[in-house]
Write a structure and sequence with these properties.
Oligomer: single chain
Number of strands: 10
CATH architecture: 3-Layer(aba) Sandwich
Distance between the termini: 13 Å
Strand order of the largest sheet: 6-7-8-3-9-10
Mean pLDDT: 93
Strand content: 25-35%
Shape: globular
Number of domains: 1
Structural class: alpha/beta
Length: 228
């Protein structure tokens, strides 16, 4: 059974009186432990696809299975629960809470799981050390470099032991050297068996993935490296 599966997935928006077909019938399977890059030109459907995979939006029709469960048409409350328990997010702009420390930012997903303060802090400290931030846990995001902030975002994405990590242009705001450091961190997570799906427009970033899916006009134009 695939960890993630899309079956004839469509998404249509209304723009005034016109219909915009963002996704036109995607069929994609992602197995546990895969590292997948999603690429395509502007308007190809990348962002729409990521929103649906992240349970931030629903398809117009078609099915989306995550961990064997059809989450296509769940209501907002159930989608919120899926996001908090099954998915980890890494954003181009980090999306950290500026008023919280590094440790507290990492703890945020654990708060929604009802963990005790002690268990939450212990887990957050362990993850902070994993991503090289053990000596920065009391700092606020504004006191960190861009690369360090993205490491906090990666640590936060790991906190709830997600089924899959979704990364949206994770090096987009970083210089090339820092971006390579973040990509090496993602590579290490993949070696540890994590499942990663990354949206990027950069071929130099996508080359780190083991599989590259290219979208064009809401369809899969190519899928290289898929497991047979």
């Amino acid at each position: 059974m695939a960890l993630l599966e899309l079956i004839n997935l469509h998404k249509t928006y209304m723009m005034g009186l016109n219909q915009v077909h963002a996704l036109r019938g995607l069929n994609i399977k992602v197995e546990e432990g895969e590292y997948v890059a999603i690429m395509g030109p502007s308007g190809s459907g990348k962002s729409t696809l990521l929103n649906i995979l992240g349970c931030l939006d629903r398809p117009t029709f078609g099915q989306y299975f995550l961990g064997g469960d059809d989450v296509s048409m769940l209501d907002d409350n159930h989608l919120s629960e899926i996001r908090s328990r099954r998915l980890g997010f890494i954003f181009q702009s980090y999306n950290l809470i500026q008023q919280l420390s590094v440790l507290e930012n990492i703890e945020v997903p654990l708060f929604y799981q009802g963990q005790t303060d002690r268990a939450s802090k212990e887990k957050a400290m362990h993850i902070a050390a994993m991503v090289g931030l053990a000596d920065r846990v009391k700092h606020k995001p504004s006191e960190l470099s861009g690369g360090q902030q993205q490491r906090v975002a990666i640590a936060r994405a790991l906190a709830n032991d997600p089924l899959i990590i979704l990364a949206d242009e994770p090096t987009g705001n970083l210089d090339s050297a820092t971006g390579q450091e973040i990509l090496q961190t993602l590579n290490e997570l993949h070696r540890q068996g994590k499942t990663l799906l990354m949206v990027t427009h950069d071929d130099d970033v996508a080359v780190h993935a083991k599989r590259v899916i290219r979208l064009h006009d809401g369809l899969v134009a190519s899928d290289r490296g898929a497991r047979q």
